[in-house]
Amino acid sequence: MTSPTPTRRSALTRTLAAAALTTLMAGAPGALWAQAGGKPITVGLPIAQSGPAGVADHADYLKGAQLAVKEINAAGGVKGRPIELKVVDIDIMTPEGTQAAMRKLADAKVQAIASPFTIIPIPAMEAVANYKAPYLHGNTSIASLDHVRKNPKKFGHVFQIDPAETFYGAGFPIFLEQLQASGAWKPVNNKVHIVTEQLAYTQVITKSAEETFKKRGKYEVVKVTQIQFPVQDWGPVLQDIKKTGAGVLMINHWVAAELAAFAKQFSANPLPGALVYLQYGPSQPEFLTLAGPAAEGFVWGTVYGAYADKQGQAFRDKYKAEYLAKGGVMGMVYAAGGYDTVQLLAKAWAQAEPEKFDAVNDVIRKMTYRGVAGFYRFDNAQQAPLHYPLETPKLEDGIAHLFFQVQGGAHRIIAPDALKEVGFKSAPWMK
């Protein structure tokens, strides 16, 4: 992937997230693990604290990890040893910046590396190829999975905590079919217009969506509009959308600030009747803050996120009490990822000494764990959990592909049926 250029909107995103991260780190010292004694077990976290995108996600991840550390250490740690976090800054947009951060953690001799994501994942993997501590990441990348599958000896210590981005494309057509079959939505036509960013991540999703739409035959992709990060003006895209007149719009972009700008501009001059899907980006806290009332009615999805079932809601409540007592929005994805990853590592260390990397990796490879974002298992060639429903038909055997809709100013799960909080509601421009 190429390195994007910052925008005013991304600068605002950076400012908001960096402020939150500064607050987090100020409360991070030894008080969090004072309850436990013994030699600390250190988890290295490469966390982006500046940059044009991704900072809010990384701040969410750090908060989730800190919450897990607080709970584990309050209960006595792992065999009497406290867990601590070593945070280093990372430039997720360049291979050089990515590798520098990963090498710092290897040099610090951490017992594990836990990462939300990097934009260019392979250099991160290569940087720690010889340092065999478990490396758990949320890159959402088929390239990362293929790298592990093809090089099991070299990358046997690398585990992806979420399914690959290809499932965004493969899962969306099925969601539409199921939504239409439920009677909750009647499309104005069967045409789909995809707007996609020119990054490897989004291009993979678009290709997968096109292939799945064609294979299933229910809807037709009539146009693909390419955009280049940063999107300075959505005007030309909106004009293009109006000309096509598709009943389904798939905005395949992941930067929350820019999707918020799209939501505002589209809501002011919408395409009547269209179902509008925004890929992933609304999961980031700033989307609701920046979009405001204009966010109402938009649908978005994530192949990995915090459930709203009993376990997931308990986590959400704890997270909000810990970090959002004075207001704010919880990110729907990586807050859960940071929490689950640390909890999973603690379970593994309870069975194998943290310094014995091969033994710990073997435990992770064989273990199963039900977290707040679904069911983790790594006993496959890619060392990643299964996508529900496309890789496993059983909810409690994988990570669910979640679809949300903004209703009443909040993100509410509308699919899959087994996890939904509310039903789909027609957006203001659909009535």
Q: What fold name stands as the CATH topology of the largest domain? A: Rossmann fold
Indicate the percent of residues in helices. Answer: 25-40%
The CATH class of the largest domain is identified as: Alpha Beta
State the major sheet.
Answer: 7 strands, mixed
Strand order of the largest sheet: 7-6-8-9-10-15-16
Structural class label: alpha/beta
- What is the CA-CA span between the terminal residues? 40 Å
Shape label:
globular
Low-pLDDT stretches = 1-34
Averaged pLDDT? 91
SSE sequence, one letter per element: HEHEHEHEHEHEHEHEHEHEHHHEEEEEE
- Work out the number of β strands: 16
Q: What is the number of independent domains?
A: 2
What brief labels describe this structure?
18% strand; seven-stranded mixed β-sheet; Rossmann fold; disordered N terminus; alpha/beta; 431 residues; five-stranded parallel β-sheet; 40% helix
